[in-house]
Amino acid sequence: MSRKIAIIGGGNLGSAIAFGLIDQSFIQAESLFVTRRQIAKLGTLGERGVNVLSDNLFAAQQAEWIIIAVKPHLATKVLEEIKSAITPDKTVISVVTGVSLEQMRKAIGEGPALFRAMPNTAIAIRESMTCIAAADAPESTQKEVVELFNQVGQAIIINEELMNSATVLGACGIAYALRFIRAASQGGIEIGFPAEVAQLIASQTVKGAASLLIENKKHPEFEIDKVTTPQGCTIAGLNEMEHQGFSSALIKGIMTSYLKIDKIPTE
Q1: How many domains does the chain have?
Q2: Any binding-site annotation on 194?
Q3: Could you report the per-residue pLDDT of 98-146, keeping only the tens digit for each?
Q4: Any known ligand binding at 216?
Q5: Residue 218, annotated ligand binder?
Q6: What does this protein do (predicted)?
């Protein structure tokens, strides 16, 4: 990519995006600017040739694309801080939870194409599921932003009204999946495996199950039917889990997170 990109906020998420973009050769390191108040914590990026600095405004002035990756309560303040650098020909992408496109537009004014993107923590190993919403962005720019986030996993465009839902299902969902793996590992210990072996088996099994759905594009029940035989141990275990409220508990947990998300402070 020939454009210059600024990532305002080089914390865990911002740094993961930066590493993903340069590791995939999506952008040259010298064309990437990453900011953080404590520049020393960006040392590894600096060693890779990335421009690391603490001046948000200067970084925004250098770039055509600006990615906002700060904490929710700092988002409006940072957008106002760099407002003078955001000309109509630029593109602004926020990966901040709970900050709407309308709030972004209010902070920086009319002109630039705006995007909200919600990756998850698997972005650190370039396996994120990223949902993106756009405002005042041509289709060509939308495709480019999707391609940017495809460097760190898979990305899709959704309607903004579904962004909270995407946060819960895709971002909080990492924690839900990990909790399942933890429980499965504990069950594995109960039936005789050492802890490390139980976790390995549970983790790889979940990875394989997800890959089956992604590769084959089938409904989960299609794959479940392949391993449930009449009077077998799989269907017995599944039925007991359902009797104990497995699916219901997961759905209720998702709904609880969804109802909570609007209460996250963004100012």
Answers
A1: 2
A2: no
A3: 889 999 999 998 889 999 999 998 988 999 999 999 998 999 999 999 9
A4: no
A5: no
A6: Catalyzes the reduction of 1-pyrroline-5-carboxylate (PCA) to L-proline.
